Every structure is written in structure tokens, then in C-alpha cells.
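pinging the channel bc i need a second pair of eyes. not urgent but kinda urgent?? the chain im working w is below, pasted from the shared doc
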Amino acid sequence: MSADDRAHSLARLRALMAMTTVNGCTEEEELSAARKVAKLIEQLDGQPGQSVTTDPSWAARERDNPQYQALLEKTTQEGLLKAALQELALGHINTVSPLRRNTRGQAVEHVSTVELLRPYFNMMLGSAGASRLARGIVDDILAELIYDGLLPDVLAIPRG
């Protein structure tokens, strides 16, 4: 298609779309116009002379770079692990720690969140959490969550 044909097709497409929305057509007319629009879009997309937008060279290099892909996969996995540990931690905290308004007038003990959650995660991870490396990873993620303000650093738990 030449540039004139393309401009003509785009004008027809705009006219069809305007007819269906402005004139309040019936369902059959709207369906017919939608089919015509789909055919025109198919024709416009299939033109060989059309310039197709491609990724810049740096994006293609990043996408094809195995080191970049490995790093992207690693950060994605770390993010998912961090989110999963946060959900589990909040669920456990809500189970063992009462609401602050319920602790007024009671003797409370301030317990470190990491100290409270470490045995829970060791139990949850089972044999996978038995290694020093796994415990270190969990402790690091808990420290990051506390630093980011996503988990409290200490909990007030009633004595007794």
C-alpha cells in the first residue's frame, strides 16, 4: 500500500469508528463495523513498507545477554522470597502478638521480631532451613524487612 492508500484506510477506519459510537447503531451494525475495523487493522499491520518500532540496540543486547538474564532471574526470585517471608512473618506475628490496645495495664516483655520468627521459620523450612546458609538468608531478609519498615523491630508480648 502506498502512503495515499494508508491515509485513505486510516480515514475509513476513523469514519467507521465514529459512525458506530455517534449514531447509535444497532448491534448488527456495530458487529459489522467491528469486523471491518479488524480487517483494516489487519491490512495496516501487514504492510511491508511500514516502519516497525524495534527495541533500541542496548535493549536487545540486554535481552540477549545471559548474565543480565541470570541477574534478572535472581532479583525476581529474591523479591518473591522476600514477599513470601513477609506474608508468613505477618501471619505469625498476628497469631502470637495481641493487639496493642489489649495490652494496656499489663506487664509486657519486648521481644525482638527476629528472635521470635527464627524458630518459626526453621520449623517452616524443615530440613532446608537447617543449614547455616539458609538461616543466614532468612535472617538477612528479616533484617531488610525491618529496616524497610515492613515488619516491626520489637513486639510487646504480655508476660505470663
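so The CA atoms of residues 143 and 149 lie 10 Å apart. and Residues 72-158 form one domain. — does that match what u expected or am i reading it wrong
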